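Researcher: Structure for this, please.
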Amino acid sequence: MSGASHLPDPSRRRVRRAIATRSLRPDRCGGGAVSPSPRRRLLILRALGLGDFLTGVPAYRALRAAYPQHEIVLAAPGALAELAALTGAVDRVLPTAELQPVRWPGPPPDVAVDLHGNGPASHDLVRALGAPVTMMYASAAEPDVAGPCWADEEHETDRWCRLLAWWGIPADPGALRLRRPRARPAVSGATVLHPGAASGSRRWPAARFAAVARALAAAGEPVVITGTEPERPLALRVARAGLGGESPVLAGRTGLAGLAAVVAAASMVISNDTGVAHLAVAYGVPSVTLFGPVSPALWGPPAGAARHLALWKGTGSRPGDPHGHRVDPRLLRIGVSDVLAAVERLRPGVLASGPVPAPANA
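Model: Predicted structure, token format:
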């Protein structure tokens, strides 16, 4: 969408020229001029989780290309620092919690970019930095922002690429790949099962994950179960029911870099709609992702990516609550046989014993 309607021609030309020359100073925002830092800096606000971080990778790379001499600082949870380095686009992570003030040291950044949201909550955090150039979305809540209009029905990766395009910065939504971590993976060549997710509405039943694990093990496929420390009891439940033991459970035993190493070395990833699914895309590992309250059209793998299958039995784009406590009914419509059929489609012949149906009440 063109930004021509948001700024009068002289103002728009001034902002575009400032971006091209990197010369717009803070007095535009009412402050006095400051001495430039030894290296100009660009701040990106995206203080969210793993999946959000990974969908933003094409935008980080576009900003790196547009500002090659700037230090690119990502305001995000500190746990993401090791993965941020693997993008080749972020110089450092400034630890920041979601919608909390950014503890920015020294003079204002030269450029501040809101890749977090579309309204006053995140915009105000970016404005508080005093950057002479700020990039953010306009919306019904903030119609006077100099930027493109927010669109609810848009894939998360495309959304941030479109914001930068309005500012004349080309971004490739397909630039999602990460470098491999240096750490040696705890397990190589296994199918990764990830039964957790941030909310109950996005968690497919543990009994069904166990049935998938059992079918894979019966076919001679090595299986490893991943997750966070709080998700370890869930992972153990899946392992005990599906594999008869706890040895393949890595949940709570790896940091994000260790998890990335395991995914990068995996033969396949089967997960809910959560960050691990995006890691599979980042490393080109075949994946099956189960969607419920939100359509894969908004958060799924890239269109046309044959090695990444999204399973969804809903209509509309956001028919459910992605932060709900109870499993979404659309997610429950996905059966074990659906997942195993997707596995067979990705890796023909791998399930020599055939599909294993889920219990009727699973």
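Researcher: Any notable elements?
Model: The beta strands are 41-45, 71-76, 92-95, 111-114, 133-135, 191-194, 223-225, 268-272, 287-290, 308-311. Residues 1-37, 357-362 have pLDDT under 50 and may be disordered.
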